[in-house]
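Researcher: Hi, I'm a grad student and pretty new to this. My advisor asked me to get structures for two proteins we've been looking at. I'm not sure of the right format, so I'll just paste the first sequence and hope you can take it from there.
Model: That works fine. Here's the first sequence with its structure tokens right after it:
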Amino acid sequence: MKIKEVDKKLVLKDGETGTIDIELPKEEITPKEKASPAKEEAKVMPSKEADKPAADKELKAEEKDETPIKEPVHRRKGNPEKTVVPGDKLSEIEDMSSKKKTKSADQKKKVHIPDEPEITHKHQPTNELYFDVIMIVSILLYLFSQTEGFEIFGRECTAGTVPYGVFMIISMISLCGPSLVFMKAGAKLLVHNETKRYIWKNRILRMAVLLLIFTIFYYISDLMGGRDDWDIWTFIGDLYCKERIVPLAYMYSFIGFLICLPFLRPMAQNMKNRDFIYLIIIGVILQTVMPEIDDKICEGRYIMNPAFNLNWLLTNSIFYPLVGYYLHHRVRREQIKKILPFAWLLTVLDMSMIIYNTYYHTTYIESVAIYMDYLYWVGILASISLFMTIKLIHTGHPHNETAKKVLASIAGCTLGVYLVFPAVLDRIKIFDDLEYMIFGNMTGPAKILPSLLWILIVYLISFIPVWLFRRIPFVKKTM
């Protein structure tokens, strides 16, 4: 309501008092403006100037991360120091105190660095059927490399002929057996995020116990056969610095791979595809190109400075596990179809160069009947080509469940066969008589047939006891 202004001025001197009558005009109130006294009181709102201090207080409280607390509603009788706060305000106070406690606790915590890297690539299953096929193929290839069939190209074939090259290629492929095992191990073990305690307790210790048991077994066998003398310190020295039999050398390499798992795993999981390709290219250069330069161009007069030594990169415990991880988890089946012809072309070209080098060296030095130093140059390309070939054949289509169980049972005995077959190969001499009875005095390239039969016999004799021992639960976890 407005007060009607009066055009009169009231002048009061000091100490004087006076009154003035002011006429207030009557204003008409429309029906819409009519309201009950209660509603009029509800409409009365505090002025902006009155609310400003409260708003400033709330703003400062928000900056301090605190909730403003209004004056208590009333005080308890008999104890004026304690205040009673309404329920909603009490919950706000409790929430505020809990937030302060959580904040202080978080500040006291140390910065946590995760043990495992962030994996950005999707991993493939590690129980693929072709893994079992790789294990079976690898042990058969290794058995061939330990028999007389490995040397047929030099003993039974004329140098420079087609059989000479064909059987040399077979010998070169047989050297890929151990490499395939390490590639499969990398594809399977570099995915699991296992603790160092688990690796040492369940993997390294297991392999070390097997190595010790079979070293003792072969040492006792040599004592009984009169091939060695009893000396405990000689045995301990041999166990530390050299293998009792040649096949056990790969057990030492595999233990080295298991020790490297804690840093090989994050390395593999965080490497990009182009990094793996770079690794393979460097490996091929070091294994094939550099030796060829030293042998043919420098002719042994100049060799690479020994300080430039990257041979550690080509060890079984580093190179092949990383390549196996890459081929299984990063290279799809559709990509293998495109890559595989090119990979085999490079492998054949490398083999052709090795055949020429071996033929040249054998004819140049007449006293050398079998020269095998060049045969190891093709290991990387041949192993990669074999791995991709097996993966391409045994993936992309369903498999019979019975066949899967049979292959898994046979592949599970591979480690046991690997440890047992030297005893069968070196200490059972009955095959010489059996070979003469079946094949007679066979010579020439056909000599490969007795070697293949001998491989089958050795594998079966080694497989049967291992398969029976694996029926025991404790042995099954060990072998």
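Researcher: Oh nice, that was easy. Here's the second one.
Model: And its structure:
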Amino acid sequence: METEDYQNSFEVVSLALSIKDEEDRDWQLSEIVQWLLQNDDWQKAHGIAQLISASYEKSEALQLIADKMAEVGHLERALFVFSEAEHHSESENLADWQQAELLHKIAKSLQKNNAIFRAEDVWKKAIVIAQKGETLENLQDSLDCSSVLAEIAADFASNEKIKKAFEIAQSIKNIGKKERAVNKISEYSEQIKKVA
């Protein structure tokens, strides 16, 4: 969407809210939130995010808003918004892999903003949820949970937390995803050794 399309934000939000299809409405509201954040208006973005009904999109929007708030120096307020995002990420209407994926994104943002202990707690939740999801009968959900665990392990490795990364990777149920994750972590480990 172009800048001139958003000159009258009240009209744009009203128009988005008039969309009957909930998924399309939430997508449009998410787009407005992202545009507002690009234009450094995190306060309006936070208000618009409250209008999003779907938990996944709302959690994702709140995580982006908290990130922006922390970036501009409002870390204490951002922590409350990260908590809101975390709450919406654990909605019962989301699949386990979606919950784990959102929690992983929130944890990465918390770490980036030096809220290390909070990030570790959120990662623990993400890992537990993804591991539980791997045991589901639905093969696709199980595979998606394995993918989230592999992504978490890779991020830990890229942050030089090799031991923890290997622990996570070794716990992955899907053999192919486990092997790829372990290989990727081994590559990170070798790169770290070369630099050291």
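Researcher: Is there anything I should tell my advisor about the second?
Model: You could mention this: The chain has a mean pLDDT of 91.
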